[in-house]
């Protein structure tokens, strides 16, 4: 399988263009040569065969060849709204969620959040996680790149169309009356799902109450307490297995 690279510009058969810096460095590390084949994708669907045309010290030029209409997305469009775990765990969570097929990620600042960002720092974090997503798409074979939005406060997000739209709305909960995820009516047939998960310590009772008022259904993954960076991935894997 030829190396795969994401190019953040629409691709067309016959065009020639430079690879982004990270991809160019990767080509040089792999010691590829002019004429070798590559696979490119622009996030608009499908992928493109390409070949190396020129390898310089600082730039790598490629020629785009034929389009391949390959789609490796889940049947169900799953958006994850995540109370951000601290340290590098959010990076890993974003990476693995992309590999498992998430369609979009909304980072959240919750009452119990350790990681709190806003303004310019929030935008930088979102850009960093977007790069993590692109890299995970390169590795996993996905040709559509899920967007990562800038972090917002959970209370603000709950009033937006993203939280109140037509999707089946599920909230991971440790409450005794939470319904087992795989027993949610209509789960297997749902075309869109919004999955809400809290940070370390979970969502506060007030936050859970607000989410329930917005139509979220409290769901459980079983009797064990999973970490904030494990629970949403387990839920996404369960949903993906139904496709």
Beta-strand share of residues: 25-35%
User: What would the CATH topology of the largest domain be?
Assistant: Alpha/beta knot
Helix content: 25-40%
Class from helix and strand fractions: alpha/beta
Q: Would you tell me the overall average pLDDT? A: 94
Query: What about the largest sheet?
Result: 7 strands, parallel
Write a structural description.
- The chain has helices at 21-29, 89-100, 119-140, 154-157, 161-164, 205-213, 231-241, and strands spanning 4-6, 16-18, 37-41, 47-55, 60-68, 77-83, 104-109, 152-153, 168-172, 179-180, 192-197, 217-220.
- 29% of the residues lie in helices and 25% in strands.
- The strands form two sheets. The chain has a seven-stranded parallel beta sheet, sandwiched between helices. Strands 1-3-4-5-2 form a five-stranded mixed beta sheet.
- It folds into two domains: 4-68, Beta Barrel (Ribosomal Protein L25, Chain P); 77-241, SPOUT methyltransferase, trefoil knot domain (Alpha/beta knot, 3-Layer(aba) Sandwich).
- Helix 2 packs parallel to helix 7 (231-241).
- It has seven helices and twelve strands.
- By secondary structure, the chain is an alpha/beta fold.
